[in-house]
Design goal:
Helix content: 40-55%
Pfam families: ARMT1-like_dom
Strand content: 5-15%
CATH topology of the largest domain: Rossmann fold
Protein name: Damage-control phosphatase ARMT1-like metal-binding domain-containing protein
Largest sheet: 7 strands, mixed
Number of strands: 9
CATH class of the largest domain: Alpha Beta
CATH superfamily of the largest domain: Uncharacterised protein PF01937, DUF89, domain 3
Strand order of the largest sheet: 1-9-8-7-2-3-6
Distance between the termini: 43 Å
Number of domains: 2
Order of helices and strands: HHHHHHHEHEHEHEEEHEHEHE
InterPro entries: ARMT-1-like_metal-bd_sf, ARMT1-like_metal-bd, At2g17340, At2g17340_3_helix_bundle, Type_II_PanK
Keywords: Hydrolase, Manganese, Metal-binding, Nickel
Shape: globular
Number of helices: 13
GO molecular function, one term: metal ion binding
């Protein structure tokens, strides 16, 4: 299954002579020796290799696919062989490898053997649970009268929601053993200062001046989108900001898709034809297909619909480890930008000089 639209560059990427957009954060290859595999490259091949058993196990349980167990075994064998080939010859299979190449090969292997959305069942279950909790989570935030404190509370909610990530093998195992409640996740965040911590600068800008339009590249299903991002987006709406939520075109791990997000937004609205979300006007909330089909993000290729909807935005938000840390942490934009996500791989923590499950909130203000 292929993406449904042609791809164009994201219009808000900085377009200066001295800047060239590169999506991947961690340098797998150095310009001084582009044919030499680095320790980081070899380590990341092993990270993806370790994820194979969890993907295989989920695929085996896909009740929509005939002979799911056989197909899952075929996927594991095929993807493992591709990783072996990349390790032996990094220029095989579209390499040299980086997070974009490695995730795309995994998706190709799944689709080649017949799997389209192996996490569909768990996504639906978690979305249903989270929608039921949405009113109480929003009510808790609304009771915080100090706006600065409310903003920080909502940001912590984004981090807490982002813990739900079945693409990180350690978290997938923990989720299977015992899923923490959203409140527990909020309380268990690592203390500040985080490895990258621009929360105070972000709060100051928001208190000083609201943005006219924000584009948010969203991440996972369940608590991430429903209890983390949507309460945050509702606060932007309440303060007069138009909000564009950009979601994946095709399924990838437990990331929310465009069609799934449209359904969730309709569920959280107040009903009876009201275009409100728990009393806040939602007429300026838009859900757009990003054109992406991976858990990482290359902003040189987005859908024309998103490009059009984003042209006049003055805030870009990238959420999640894949979109905001493993890719695009150093991306520069023509407008203000916020990169926010949790560090869920030890290799990323080591690169940033932080801790596993550390938080990243990087805010860059553009002065015109």
């Amino acid at each position: 299954m292929e993406r449904t639209s042609p791809q164009v560059p994201f219009p808000l990427i900085k377009a200066w002579v001295d800047y060239e957009y590169r999506p991947c954060t961690i340098p797998y290859r150095f310009p001084s020796d582009p044919r030499q595999a680095t320790p980081a490259e070899l380590a990341w091949i092993q990270v993806f290799r370790k994820s194979i058993p969890s993907f295989k196990k989920v695929a085996e349980q896909d009740e929509t696919i005939v002979d799911a167990a056989k197909r899952a075994a075929k996927f594991a064998e095929r993807y493992g062989k591709m990783l072996d080939e990349l390790q032996a010859d990094p220029f095989s299979n579209g390499g040299p490898p980086d997070p974009i190449v490695l995730t795309r090969l995994r998706e190709i292997c799944l689709r080649e053997v017949g799997f389209h959305d192996i996490y569909k069942k768990v996504k639906d279950e978690e979305n249903t649970k989270s929608v039921a909790l949405f009113p109480s989570v929003v009510s808790t935030a609304d009771k915080i009268e100090n706006i600065g404190e409310r903003i920080e509370h909502l940001v912590r909610g984004v981090f807490a929601g982002n813990i739900f990530d079945l693409g990180a093998s350690q978290l997938a195992e923990k989720f299977e053993e015992k899923a923490c409640s959203f409140e527990e996740s909020c309380q268990q965040l690592l203390p500040r200062p985080w490895v990258i911590d621009d929360l105070d600068q972000f709060k100051q800008k928001w208190l000083r001046k609201s943005w006219k339009k924000a584009v948010i590249f969203v991440d996972n299903s369940g608590a991430d989108i429903v209890l983390g991002i949507l309460p945050f987006a509702r606060e932007l709406l309440r303060r007069g900001t138009k909000v564009v939520l950009a979601a994946n075109d095709l399924p990838s791990i437990n990331d929310i898709t465009y069609d799934e997000l449209k359904d969730i937004v309709s569920q959280i609205k107040d009903g009876d034809g009201k275009d409100t979300i728990l009393g806040v006007d939602a007429s300026q909330l838009f859900v757009v297909n990003s054109g992406n089909d991976l858990p990482v993000l290359d902003l040189s290729e987005v859908s024309p619909e998103l490009a059009y909807a984003s042209e006049d935005a003055d805030l870009v938000i990238l959420e999640g480890m894949g979109r905001a840390i493993e890719t695009n942490l150093y991306a520069q934009f023509k407008c203000d930008s916020l990169k926010i996500g949790m560090v869920k791989h030890q290799e990323v923590a080591d690169f940033l000089g932080g801790r596993l499950y550390d938080c990243v909130i990087r805010f860059t203000e553009v002065i015109h």
